[in-house]
Each structure stands twice: as structure tokens, then as C-alpha cells.
Amino acid sequence: MPVKDSLETTEQAIRAIVESGYSLIVYNDYSTPENTERLHQLAQETGIEVIDIASLTAHPSPNYRYVLLDSRQKAIEAEVPLIIVESDVVVVKDTIQRLIGAQEEGVGMVAAVTHNEAGEINFPYEYAQKLAIGAVETKKRLSFCCTLLTPTLLRAMDWETLLDPDKNWYDVTISHESSRLGFRNILLTDSPVLHKPHSSRPWKQLKYTHPLLYYWRKLTQHKDKI
């Protein structure tokens, strides 16, 4: 779980995973000193592991490339799939088990569809409103909101080359590369998770409230490169 402040949402996301019975590594991506201290308090309370990226690289946030490279290596060494849950996503008790259970030969990625608090499909899976209910194969991108990458896929990709250091986010890149390599990507439309979009980067809410300002900042400040 990559984390950048937004501690109220983050703590909810962390506790949901812990209460599901799974271990969790939190990558603290330059949160404030106060929020960093709270993350380490949560580690003592819940047993999660916290990795402070600021102590490992001087590269400014976001450090998704670092997170993906490091967590991929850990997953390969442990011989387990890599499951990414964003800090603005709250799983339910069987979410992770359902992701794991959907793995089968030829599958590269498995994702849980996202809902808002009203139970409606929301960003980034608006396209799923037209899909069947169940485990649906899709050629469209799978976001990393709540997504499993199979061990076979982790080994098949040259991540050092694939993950462009000039980009910020890699869900589109990895989704397309998974399909290009012949893997099937699966969206579980019957296994929703609660998504509170962009809680850790509130400036991105401009995309919905003031789209022109959002795209101006995206272009002039080189933000949000996908």
C-alpha cells in the first residue's frame, strides 16, 4: 500500500486489510513527520510493516516506480502474488481471498471493481457499468486501486525497462503489457471495494470540479504522468 498522508482514509484502509487476516507492507511516500509518526504507531498496533521511502531515496513523491520495483522483488522472493491496495480503498473481509481465488493459468492481473459510498461503480471503472456480473475478462486498463498481479506476470515483465522513470503512474502501462504478452486481465464486478478517489492527492479532485485547471496544472507542473 503506497501512502501519502490522508491519514484518516489511510488508517481505515489499513485496518480493513488487517481485519481480513492478511499482512501488509505500507510504503510511506514522504508523508509529513506527524503522519509518519502515526503510521509507525499503527505498525505497533496492527503488526503492519512501514517502509519510509524518504530514508531510501531522495526522489520526490510520488515514488510509485520504487514501490513497484521493491514490492515485485519481495513477492518473487516469497513466491506469492503481488496485491496492491491503494490508501483510498477499503476492502471487505473476503476481497483479498477472492482476488487470490481468481488466479488461474493464463491470468496476469485480477482487480476488484470500485464503488462509492452509495454502492455505485465509480472512478476508475465507469466502463464496468456495462459489463456482466462476475469475473469478466477485459482489455481495458485495470487500475491499481485493489489489484493482484500473478507470480507468472511478475516474472514475465522486464520492469526496470517497462517502468519509465519520467512517469508517475503505471497501471495503464502494466495492464497493456500484460495483454501484449498474452495474459488475461480479469475484473471482478461482483466483488466491490469502497473507493474514495485521490484522498492522498486532493489537487486531483480538480479533474471533476475544475477540469481546465486540472489539465493546466498537469501540463505546466508536469504532474500525474501516466
Write the H/E string, N to C: EHEHEHEEHEEEHHHEHH
CA gyration radius, whole angstroms: 17 Å
What is the averaged pLDDT score? 91
Helix content: 25-40%
Overview of the molecule:
The chain is an alpha/beta fold. It contains nine helices and nine strands. The strands form two sheets. Strands 4, 5, 6, 7, 8 and 9 form a six-stranded mixed beta sheet that branches. The chain has a three-stranded parallel beta sheet with strand order 1-2-3, covered by helices on one side. Helix 1 runs parallel beside helix 2 (about 35-45).
Record the SSE blueprint.
Blueprint: E1 2-3, H1 7-19, E2 25-28, H2 33-46, E3 49-52, H3 64-78, E4 82-85, E5 89-90, H4 95-101, E6 107-115, E7 135-137, E8 146-149, H5 151-156, H6 159-162, H7 171-180, E9 184-195, H8 206-209, H9 211-220
Parallel strand pairs: 1-2, 2-3, 6-9
Antiparallel strand pairs: 4-8, 5-9, 6-8, 7-9
Helix pairs in contact: 1-2
What is this entry, summarized?
This protein has 226 residues and is of the alpha/beta class. 37% of the residues lie in helices and 19% in strands.
Note the main attributes of this structure.
9 strands; 226 residues; alpha/beta
